[in-house]
Amino acid sequence: MARLRLLTVDIAAAIVRTPSTWPEAVRMLRVMRPTRPEAGRASRSMLPSAEYLSFRLHTNSGSDDPPTGYDVVRFLKWTGSQRRVLG
User: Fold this and answer.
1) Which residue, 3, 39, 51, 67, could crosslink 71 as a Cys pair with Cβ 3.0–4.6 Å?
2) Cβ-based neighbours of 57, under 8 Å, separated by 6 or more
């Protein structure tokens, strides 16, 4: 649990230090939020399931190692640039 907390703080600090990524970070939270109509509003998490995150980490980097703050900021910049290019 402490490792997850440190990882979350590292990622949040990296995003806060990079204001240009804030709009894309909000978009990603919206996109990644699970949508389950049968689940109550209070039980919805802002993050996807652990299984999904593990799958995405493995397909992205070839391992289940969590991303660093730098990785997340780089991803947010990339998705933002792709959004601008593709319209």
Assistant:
1) 67
2) 63, 64, 65, 66, 67
